[in-house]
Write the structure tokens for this entry.
Amino acid sequence: MKHVIVEGLPALGKSEALELLARFYPERVRILPELVKEIVNRAGLDLFRDREALTRAILEALPGRAEAIRDILSREFLCLEESHLGVHYAYAQALGDRSFIDAYQAIEDALPRPDAFLRFEAPIPVSVARQAARGTPSFDVYDDRLTAMLANLDRWHADRATTLLHVRVDRPAHEVLSEIEACLGLEYVSHASASEDVLDVLLLLGRPASGKSEFIDFMNGCPSGVRACAYHIGPFDVVDDFPILWDLFEDDDLWEALGRPRLYSRRCNGNYAVTDHGLWPFLIGKIDRNVTSRSSRPGRTTIIEFSRGGPSGYADALPALSDEILRRAAILYVSVSFEESWRRNIARYDEADKGGILTHSVPREEMEKTYGTDDWFDLAPDPTGTIDVRGIHIPYATMPNEPESKDPAVLGPRYRTALDPLFALRSRSR
């Protein structure tokens, strides 16, 4: 479940329980407070006398609430809302509030539908006693209205065939919270435990503009707990050979400005093309030295990003890595066709800043020469498996990354579909 709404009679502890969940699961849960109560407090309305004004204010608030829900879901959090406008509809029926009843269909259609509802249940006298104890008389609702509201709310759920879960809340708090966690699939894991069970070294491979940088951006935007639990990636460092290559291109510019011949590259269509193909193993050597010079820390992930092409690009590159890296590694290959790689390569090139590394574009001539063929599928014909490199069996997963998307709601499941079996292979190989 990704979106659950908590409902129930007043003063049964919905706000308090949700606040605790937000505190103990900060990297998994986001809470949206009760919309009606927020509006009443912000606008200074009387919950019972200002019904028409309240309906107008609810209609105005709907786009913001819908956007807040979508934002939480796009970032892979569990969205928990306190109460919902179906409850307000049930109260409106009990109060004879035609303004809200007449507007309700448009209101209901404006909000995303949750996966489930979780009802806090207790006898009406418990709600009444707890309302008196909380000391907020402007929100208090008593016996006859509560009875009518519950009957209306039950019909509302029956008409919509919702998934309605129940938690009895007239019992000790720790028992209530434990059952809520079970209903929501929340299991507390200490930060240390969660962060240790991750991929150690991830070789992130694929053609230029296949989506490797977008993968890293997505992981950078994930809360660390979500990233570790959902994607098996801990706090991470990125080692990318392209900045090394770019520095060499710019060194060539300096040599050229001094009247000396370029050493590694030539200018090509406003960019650069490699002329010394000894650069490719040189770059692997630089990556290897960078990674092996660091101390390996449990719970962290090192992402090594590079592209290779040609009839033996990856077959040559992988054995050039040290045993230390290969024994720790898993491979995620981001798969797009050559034409899709070229299309994205052009799309990301900012004509106003051709000299910038962040807007680099591989020329078509270089793309065809270097990346027109790709030996990945010769090495790894199946969607997942292992590659034998010098007797070391490295788990891999190939992730199709077409059509292109920047929507986290699309990318999250796409990444999980590849990383879950990859992590399982890595775990079995240890």
User: Anything to note?
Assistant: The domain at 192-429 is CATH 3.40.50.300 (Rossmann fold).
